[in-house]
Amino acid sequence: MAAIAVQAPPGLRVPPRPRYTDSFRYGLDLGEKSLASDRRVHVTLECSDCKRRNYITEKNRQNNRDRIELKKYCRWCRGHTSHKETR
Which residues of 9-47 are buried (b: 16+ CB within 10 A; e: fewer)? Predict the structure, then answer.
């Protein structure tokens, strides 16, 4: 079945689709910084066995003041090992 192209009547002007930006989507001014980004920080996780830095994740600085430690898969150790936050 062929697609049928629908056009507007000759006297009707169709406005273009607006381009949405992050500032529009989240209600922020361009110079304004969100408060949630102050609380969440990026941390790097290091394997405790092979000392390779395998993962980058976020943590909430307000809830977790000390360093986090998670069990994650290390592809060089080929198993689940504990990964600690590095600075």
Answer: eeeeeeeeeeeeeeeeeeeeeeeeeeeeeeeeeebebbb
Q: In which band, very low, low, confident or very high, does the pLDDT at 12 lie, cut at 50, 70 and 90?
A: confident
pLDDT digits (tens, 9 = 90+) for 48-67: 999 999 999 999 988 988 99
The CATH number of domain 39-86, selected from 2.20.28.120, 3.30.499.10, 1.10.101.10, 2.102.10.10: 2.20.28.120
